[in-house]
Every structure is written in C-alpha cells, then in structure tokens.
C-alpha cells in the first residue's frame, strides 16, 4: 500500500541529531592547537566541555571566538555559521580561545603564527622526467 508523502512523515519532520552534518574545528590559543570534530547541532558550551577534557580548564574559564566575535554558549555551531561546507576535515574552521586570568578578567585573544615545515631534502624532491638517471639504453 502506497502513501502520499504528507502521510508518510509528520508535517514538521526534522532530521535527527544523528543525521546532523559533521564540522571540523581547530581551536587555537597562543601556541596551542586542538582539533575537534563535532556536529552542526553541538552547542558552544559542549565544545568548551570537550576542550576541558583536553586542556583541563573548566568551561566558565574559557571564551571562544569566531574572528573577534565572542561565541554565545547557548548557540549551536550551525547557528554560529559553522557548516560541513565551511568547516571541512582538510580545512577546519578556526576558533580562538582565551582563558580567564587570576584577576577574573579574560586574557586578550592571542594566536601565534604556525611554523613552516622545513625544506625537503634533495633526495625527496621530485626530479624532472627528462633528468632521470635510470633511463634504459
């Protein structure tokens, strides 16, 4: 027996959280980088709890930034503009992180530049096809 689409699903059917798209984040503070994979439906507070498990600082001592904007703990990553199109595994979205200092104020956001990899040794560099020494006679 066939049913019409309107009879098959509730009128306001929404995908479950299991169907939410993955987003990949690189959380940066000073020289520290933490890579996380989350769902678009993950809240900013949940991200802070993940960071707590790694850096041992409670969520209330953390402030997360997108650019120079402080992220609201109650918003989801999707609400903040992080989607599977803007935060891919090969190009994760970057979040800034600052911690509360002893005086109760949050430190200024500071992210050090990433280092460049060393130059490849000559033996690992590609040779031009015309300069190969292993040509047959």
Provide the CATH superfamily of the domain at 20-99. Phosphatidylinositol 3-kinase Catalytic Subunit, Chain A, domain 1
Number of strands: 5
Instruction: Report the radius of gyration as a whole number of Å.
Output: 23 Å
Query: Judging by the overall fold, what is the CATH architecture of the domain at 20-99?
Result: Roll
Here the CATH topology of the domain at 20-99 equals: Ubiquitin-like (UB roll)
Shape: globular
Instruction: State the secondary-structure class.
Output: alpha+beta
- The CATH class assignment of the domain at 20-99 is Alpha Beta
Q: Describe the biggest sheet?
A: 5 strands, mixed
Distance between the termini: 73 Å
Could you state the order of secondary-structure elements as H and E? HEEHEEE
Uncertain segments are 9-13
Summarize model confidence as the mean pLDDT.
Answer: 85
Instruction: Identify the strand order in the major beta sheet.
Output: 2-1-5-3-4
Strand content: 15-25%
Fraction of residues in H or I helices: 10-25%
Count up the helices.
Answer: 2
Region (Disordered): 114-137
Subcellular location: Nucleus
Family: Belongs to the Elongin B family.
GO cellular component, one term: VCB complex
